[in-house]
Design a protein that fits this description.
The chain is built from 24 helices and 14 strands. The protein is of the alpha/beta class. The protein folds into three domains: 46 residues, Hemocyanin, N-terminal domain, CATH 1.20.1370; 158 residues, Rossmann fold (3-Layer(aba) Sandwich); 182 residues, 3-Layer(aba) Sandwich (Rossmann fold). The strands form three sheets. A seven-stranded mixed sheet has the order 8-7-6-9-10-11-14, with helices on both faces. Strands 1-3-2-4-5 form a five-stranded parallel sheet, sandwiched between helices. It has a two-stranded antiparallel sheet with strand order 12-13. α10 links the parallel β2 and β3. α4 packs across α7. The two termini are 29 Å apart.
Length: 542
């Protein structure tokens, strides 16, 4: 097809306004001539490394994290490859900006900081036309959808359509840490209303202004979405994210045996926590099969952790009953016990036949080696709780996993101070190293980003049709083994975030191997799984 003179001259402008193609000042002399870019960009030809330096200089000049978040999102909308280059090479610095904790604030303020649309929005008014709508998405080879309905965003609660920030942030980490090409990723929100009155009274709120859809109407809308996705994007992996606990379990149980899907709050969190527990055993010297573990919280994250740890304990040779007896769940009302009439189905397996008691008494009774918080309740690990754990254990393992930082059950400094420097501590959001006496204690960040990029990469690489529990057990084992002696000596039970791409490759290889063993993989098995995985990973370099 011939292209007229005016159309050829418009190519340059189109390229500059296409984030996937734009290189800005890095276009070479030859490219500037070929794409009619002369005069449209400054005369200096910069390398991507120089551009990266300029980005970091501007980013670090910002006075607060939400401004840094907005700056990075603007960069993503302007020059996608440069955004990912900056993120990959500065992941420890920028992950807290692109994801937790800053993404929580970005979601809270979404309607006020909105600049351009990103992601896909489905409402109850779209019923009957979701398949047609999905065809509006500009990319046709979608392999990964992160979807939320915004009802339980981090520890912040119901944020309605503002929750779209979570899939956007999550998928940025899938591409940066897991190497999944951005064009294969689709952030999506089921905008089914919100019961957050403050949001609905905000004239800048961008979601539908009505109460949340519930019951059969909600279930049928999700059904239509899942079925439509299978038709439009037949190779897609669906990650359910930040759903309220009853819906999180309901949707997982409904689809996990027929669709390639998982729930990161239930399964990703559990694999990350299990990895941390396994690594902690190398510090304390306590055998994993001998551990007693208490979880504060009884929602999707806490019960997911309990379920996967129970499976791991059974793999050591323990019976189901003995493995389950090693796990104690406590919520805001106290120990999960059988005579309570407010327990959800996912809590019932952990209900004990004992009188109702609070957290401190539960610790005295169970004498746990490990205490894991997944409550969203800031300060839930009091000084009394931490000191009690330290009386029972020479090196108490304390994981305060709630996000964002403002919701952490305790800070790293509190855990170390109250345990006289003996705690092995990890948290969901990052804390700085703590000087205690002559030692520098490095708190681990128990971030799901250690796990979900590798899980997704392994599923996509093998074209797996299902995501199994064994894959999460494999991911946890691999992650725990990547913690080296230097990390352990500093008190951390997770490897450095700077190793994320390497970690994802190792986890993806194990997940793909499991997919082939279980018969879920559709792609012919290659001679080397790791080589295949490394070959398909996204590289944003020009």
């Amino acid at each position: 097809m011939s292209v007229d003179k005016n159309s050829r001259k418009s190519i340059g402008r189109e390229i500059l306004f296409n984030a996937k193609l734009n290189k800005g000042s890095a276009f070479t002399t030859e490219e500037r001539k070929e794409y009619h870019l002369h005069g449209l960009v400054p005369s200096a030809i910069c390398t991507q490394e120089i551009q990266l330096t300029r980005v970091l200089e501007n980013l670090r000049r910002k006075t607060n994290d939400i401004e840094r978040y907005n700056f990075l999102m603007a960069l993503l909308g302007r020059n996608e490859r440069l955004f990912y280059k900056v993120l990959i090479e500065n992941i420890e610095e920028l992950m807290p900006i692109v994801y937790t904790p800053t993404v929580g604030q970005a979601c809270q303020e979404y309607g006020h900081i909105f600049r351009r649309t990103r992601g896909f929005f489905i409402t109850p008014d779209d019923r009957g036309q979701i398949e047609e709508m999905l065809n509006n998405w500009p990319e046709k080879d979608v392999r990964l959808i992160v979807v939320t309905d915004g009802e339980r965003i981090l520890g912040l609660g119901d944020l309605g359509a503002n929750g779209i920030g979570i899939p956007i942030g999550k998928l940025a980490l899938y591409s940066a840490c897991g190497g999944i090409p951005p064009h294969q990723c689709m952030p999506l929100i089921l905008d089914v209303g919100t019961n957050n009155k403050e949001l609905r009274d905000d004239p800048l709120y961008l979601g539908i202004n009505r109460s949340r859809l519930k019951g059969e109407a909600y279930d049928s809308l999700v059904d239509e979405f899942v079925n439509a996705v299978q038709k439009v994007f037949p190779k897609v992996l669906i990650q359910f994210e930040d759903f309220l606990t009853p819906n999180a379990y309901k949707l997982l149980h409904r689809y996990q045996h027929s669709v390639a899907c998982f729930n990161d709050d239930i399964q990703g969190t559990s694999a990350m926590a299990l990895a941390g527990v396994l690594a902690s055993c190398r510090i304390t010297g306590v055998k994993f099969s001998d551990l007693r573990i208490m979880l504060l919280g009884a929602g999707s994250a806490a019960t997911g952790i309990a379920n996967l740890i129970q499976a791991a304990l059974r793999n050591t040779g323990l019976s189901k009953e003995v493995a389950r007896d090693r796990l104690w769940l406590v919520d805001q009302y106290g120990l999960i016990v059988a005579d309570r009439d407010d327990l959800a189905p996912h809590n019932l397996p952990y209900a004990r036949v004992t009188p109702q008691i609070g957290l401190n008494k539960s610790i005295e009774m169970a004498r746990p080696h490990v205490l894991i918080g997944a409550t969203g309740a800031s300060g839930a690990f009091t000084e009394d709780v931490v000191r009690l754990m330290a009386e029972i254990n020479k090196q108490p393992v304390i994981f305060a996993l709630s996000n964002p930082t403002s919701k952490s059950e305790c800070t790293a400094e509190q855990a170390y101070q109250w345990s006289d420097g003996q705690a092995i501590f990890a948290s969901g959001s990052p804390f700085l190293p703590v000087v205690y006496g002559d030692n520098i204690l490095d708190p681990g960040q128990g971030n799901n980003a250690y796990v979900f990029p590798g899980i997704g990469l392994g599923i996509i690489a093998s074209d797996a049709t299902r995501v199994s529990e064994e894959m999460f057990l494999d991911a946890a084992k691999v992650l725990s083994e990547l913690v080296d002696e230097t990390d352990l000596k500093s008190g951390t039970v997770f490897p450095p975030l700077s190793q994320m791409r390497h970690i994802s490759i190792k986890i993806a290889t194990a997940v793909a191997k499991r997919a082939y063993e279980q018969g879920f993989a559709k792609k012919p098995e290659p001679p080397s799984l790791q080589a295949m995985i490394e070959e398909i990973m996204y590289d944003p370099s020009y």
